[in-house]
Amino acid sequence: MKILSSYSIKGGVGKTALAVNLAFALREAGHRTLLLDLDPQGAATFYFRVAGAEKFRMRDAGALAEGLRCNIRESDFPGLDIIPSNLGYRHFDILLDGMAKRRRQLRKVLEEFKPDYDVILMDCPPNITLLSENVFRASDAILVPVIPTVLSRRTLEQLAGFFRDEELPAGMLRPFFSMVQKRNRMHREIMDDLPASYPGFLKTAIPFSADVEKMGLHRMPLLAYSRASAAATAYRALCDEIFPLVSRGK
Amino acid sequence: MAGMGATSFEGSESGGKVLNGKSVCLALPEGVGPECLQGKWEVDIHPQESRVLAFWDTFEWGLWFNGHILYSTGGTYYLCAREGGWPGAVLCEERAGDRRFWKDFETGAMRARLEGMLGLRGLAQVAEGTFRLRRCDARNSEGKIVCRLEWSSLSAGKGRGEDLVHSCRVLPLTGYEPEAARLVQHLVRRGALTSGDDPLEALLRHVGRMPRLYTLRPVFGLKMDTPAREGVGRIVRAILEIAESNVPGIVSDLDTEFLHDYRICLRKVRSALSLVKDAYPADETRRIRIVLGDLARQTNRLRDLDVYLLARDEYRELLPPILRPALDGMFKDFSAEREQEVRRISLAMGAESTRRLFREVKEFFAPETVHEPSPAACFPVGALVFRRILKRYRKIRRIAANIGAETPDEAVHRLRIECKKLRYLMEFFAELIPGGEGAELLRLLRRLQNRLGEFNDALVQQRSLMNYWGQKRSGTKAALAVGGLVAMLHHRQQQARGLIDEALEGFCGGSTAAAFKQTFKQARVPATGTKRTARQ
Question: What is the CATH number for A132?
Fold first, then answer.
């Protein structure tokens, strides 16, 4: 079982669009996939028409695993399940803080799902908290959407700095360009320049697309209603690129 | 088709009971379709799919009784786990073609799974049905699918026939089991039943091909005090029925096991008559034995050819690769001769003369046929047979005592025949022998028989090959190949001979002899005091 996360310190960069569509592409490729919506905003949950998670007690790792399991919902797409978001997840930090090995608890919890899934994909909230640190230590790869703008470049640098400070393996960071507008000169320049500084930078870039915005209207992944669009094709290409990378040597 | 299996639903009456992610199969009254959900649920009804499914199995139902179903549709074979009477998960698939034996399949997965279940048996179509499926999705107020339903009907043959089964499978989505339970309740209120015929069972019943266990060792329902004639009659009638059930398979030449079993049955009937001597009048018994011998004899050559052809790969393996192609001519001759023999036997089996002989035997053993009295007709079969078993065993021990490295092959052959007689006796009357002891004695006997069989097969095969060569004599390489084969078989015969002694020790040793005595002597003197009468 592989654990992937869609993460960025910055909001509005296409994290949820990535999580929802990559999850869809993974199940299409035959991987039993569980999407874990850790973002209290619950956008991924909304896209799959799933109600918010029921409340459960999170007193220890066992109860947390059991609570998550009880909240598994089968999506409309066989092979893809989702654990919906819950406002209670904002207490994750307090819960984790009280535990021994508090930075590694999430991995232990997610290991419980190993018999049932090939991939767990986490949609993470945009901040650096104890939960984020758990996500970093639980993941086999952290997919970081980067809009080719100065601000996005800066947040990527911040994240890489955090990894250095915390002695986290930088190789796990898998940035890729998101919401790309090829006609925008600045986008082009940053795309020419930035990947050289990050050896794990993925080749696939997701183009900006109004189709992606319409996911809120359709309430389903872009890949389910506009299979042939440029963005859908890019998400599938990203899936093809990332999966062999995490499978190798793990 | 994956996951078309049916699971029984328990507790559909309990409101909102969670289905634990399992699907539920409901038998529906005519006319209850997905439309009955509209108004209460938002449902998407998908277009109907229709497929003709051909189901395959062997004469022995080797797949069915090993928990599998093989069907073909749309140019593909699917091997599935059997869930009740319906295909469950697809285990492997392969494009359809001319496939009868496991070796005819091309994919490794299919061959590996089928080999153990089919053995030497050939596949034949057991039923064909048209399966119609309408899928529908039930959604909640958010538009989220909460349950999938599969409405299916099945009719026999191709095209639109009478529906044999009309059913609905309710497949809850994980996390939405209460919604599925509500749907089940809704259907139950409209007359759906949580139990009913599985579709394939209904189809098989319709075409009169219900799976039945096939065995050459049926239970005859004997008791220790069953009169000998009645006991033998029951045994013979049951075995004749098995023999007859194999005839269509011999005529259609589906596989070699039909003839093999048919011959075993004839041999067993002959043995039953001679082993329980005097159950029927001696003259009549002799006549029937001759008839049975004639019936069996007409199939001798075909069985020999089957044995050679089945051993083709094994023979080739015995030779160095350079000589293997030289055997092709011989097997080609055997194949051609076999084709002729099959035609001859098919005609013979259908001929009035053969049918009359068979009828004659059946009428002889019919319960209503009246026979002259015979010395042992009314003896309690238990005492009679136990004494004969002990007698046979002692005879085997006597022969075995004289067997050494220098004993001629004929003596070993005699030992083999005696063992076979004892085996038949013990198997015919197995239900009278105390369980554990009888089974252990039979195990030792089987081991000895296997060794003797290996020895005999190697010997007979050498003679047949020499005989074939005596008639053909073609080519130096072929001569080398046949010579090499005879040498290898001779070596195998010698090896088998060495192993016979060891098996004999086990079967004829003191502890086995004591066990035989204890098992079969106990019942020797029956409470009814028939011992004396039996000697009259």
Answer: 3.40.50.300
